[in-house]
Amino acid sequence: MKNIYKQLGVILICLFSLTSSFAQTKITDKALSKLKPGEYAFSSKMEAFEGAWAFKNDSISFELSLNVKRKIPLGKNNSTIYYDRLDGQYTYEKNGIVINSSTEFPLIGALAGINGPLPMTLTFHDIERKKEGEVTLVITKNNDLEWTLVERKVEWKENYPGFSVPTKMTLSKVR
User: Fold this and answer.
1) Mean pLDDT across 15-29
2) What percent of the chain clears pLDDT 90, i.e. is strictly above it?
């Protein structure tokens, strides 16, 4: 009987050791470049961006849905770190006709300035104009979302001027 308790004790110690070796250290709002293997850059500030946002005027409708993805692994084996990411989908309509949608390439981003005024920076792929852009999102004092899209210097075979979606607008939260 003593032997069974010893074996059970050894098994419990092994299980505890194993689970603690797989645990990630949760570090709030730390830059990815400063993480050590096994650390997790938890972002407490992304929730403010999460939800459905919309911009509408007489002829234009732009709807944006943003979702926080938690604990995304980056790296391999013993060098893996974990981070949070904001993913988005959008639909742009003009006069009731869908002009552009992110079904093929969703918006993907991470925090750009964690300790500053907190813009979010997302990658934007404009398939129609064959170019990439960078979207900066800032929440205003009125809890609206400012969208600013600028061109990225990525070479495509062909490149067309401008974007197929608005480059500057203020969206209101709808959900």
Assistant:
1) 45
2) 22
- Cβ distance 52 to 65 under 8 Å? yes
CATH number of residue 117's parent domain = 2.40.128
Residue 16 Rama label (left phi>0; alpha psi -120 to 50; beta): alpha
Per the confidence metrics, is the pTM higher than 0.85? no
> Is residue 56, in this structure, part of any structural domain at all?
yes
Domain range for 57: 49-68+84-173
Write the pLDDT tens digit of every residue in 70-98: 888 888 877 888 888 888 888 999 999 98
CB 149 within 8 A of CB 121: no
Alpha-carbon gap, residue 55 to 74, rounded angstroms: 34
What is the number of structural domains in the chain?
1
Contacts 24+ apart (CB under 8 A), 45-48: 45/111, 45/114, 45/118, 46/84, 46/86, 46/111, 46/120, 48/139
Cα(123)–Cα(8) distance, integer angstroms: 52
In this predicted structure, the answer to whether residue 156 has a pLDDT above a threshold of 70 is no
